[in-house]
Amino acid sequence: MTAPLHEKSAGEATATVDGAPDAPGIPGVPGKAIEGRSPWQIAWTRLKRDKLALAGAFIVVFLVLVAIFAPVIVGLLGHPPDEFHEDQIDPLFGTPIGSWGGVSSDFLFGVEPVNGRDVFSRIVYGARISLLVAFLAAVFAVVLGTILGIIAGYFGGWIDAALSRVMDVMLAFPQLLFTIALVSVLPNELLGLDGSGVRIAALVLVIGFFGWPYVGRIVRGQTLSLRNREYVEAAQSLGAGRLYILRRELLPNLIAPITVYATLMIPTNILTEAALSFLGAGVKPPTASWGQMLSTAITTYESDPLFMVIPGFAIFITVLAFNLFGDGVRDALDPKGSR
Cβ contacts of residue 167 below 8 Å, gap of 6+? Predict the structure, then answer.
């Protein structure tokens, strides 16, 4: 009896080891294997196609490295950030000697009016303050907002109502005024911190505390849409506890929106820190801060405009890079909502 038509004889080529069939029309030549990809691999593939997002990511990584290795960079290319150079200042007018704010091979971005401090060194060290406050405040807001948002969305009832009203009150609170009032009464030493360390800790806590309601609202809304899904009901029917469902079923599906909002929150925190430093509620002098440099430049911008342009440009590039990267991450993780 002859073999059925759908069966292959022993001499015909079979499927490859990884399950891919032979190339059609070319016996014995294996075809390309079909491999499954995780959602994160798919998102990374989309992100790699976004050139603007990759450019933003490159600038972000560069700025982070600059902040980490600030002492090394300043040691090679600049001068100590708090060191005065009166010999670079015109004693009559108090402005930098030379054109473009005293820019030279020794002072790459020139010097500050009146005192002659190295602008390049203070920009490099100012990146530490801005990024440190922005990152830590974002982490604080994301952790607190995720915990309270997922609790409100999953349990519902009076818990959801109470936490939602707290979020509404927090969103209506004047953050800048509260921060300025708080910083003005802070002692110079607190919990082992002193000087600018107290101010940095206060900025992180205040910015993060007023930022968590935004994260909480997003997490709450996503949790409301996820808590009635089939896999959650299946876990409940199998006797899984609430903590297990929150940790193993809901939280992994919330990582994508949390990641997107965290990347978009960091540039907002950078602007908030710069605004507070500009208003005198940031780190204490002589600690370098971009917002503080802008505030100082107000009185000298007519005679030395470059001193205002450089910190302003640093803030602009940093915020733009984070926004471009955040938009790319959002489009990669949520292609349906992309532009």
Answer: 213, 216, 217
Which residue, chain included where needed, has tokens 């982490």? 139
Instruction: Give the span between the Cα atoms of 176 and 275, in whole angstroms.
Output: 9
Cβ–Cβ < 8 Å for 122, 81: yes
Q: Hey, is 243 helix, strand or coil?
A: helix
- Coil, helix or strand at residue 89: strand
- Per-residue DSSP letters for 174-227? -HHHHHHHHHHT--SEETTEETHHHHHHHHHHHHHHHHHHHHHHHHHHHHHHHT
- Could you report the per-residue pLDDT of 146-194, keeping only the tens digit for each? 999 999 998 888 999 999 999 998 888 887 888 888 877 777 777 667 7
CA proximity to 315, closest of 260, 253, 269: 269
* Cβ-based neighbour number of residue 13 at 10 Å: 14
Query: pTM to 2 decimals?
Result: 0.81
Point out which residues pair with 190 in neighbouring strands.
193
For residues 142 and 216, what is the distance between their CA atoms, to the nearest angstrom?
A: 8
**Whether residue 29 has pLDDT greater than 70:** no
How many CA atoms lie within 13 Å of 339's alpha carbon, on the beta-carbon side? 5
Q: What Rg do the C-alpha atoms of the chain give, in angstroms?
A: 28
Strand (E) or helix (H) holding 163: helix 157-172
Q: Report the distance separating Cα 182 and Cα 43, nearest Å.
A: 42
Closest CA to 284 of 213, 152, 211, 194: 194
Q: How far is residue 248's CA from residue 302's CA, in Å, rounded to a whole number?
A: 59
Find, among 237, 236, 217, the residue nearest to 170 by Cα. 217
Closest by CA position to 208, among listed 152, 149, 148, 145? 145
Assess contact for 267 and 278: CB atoms under 8 A.
no
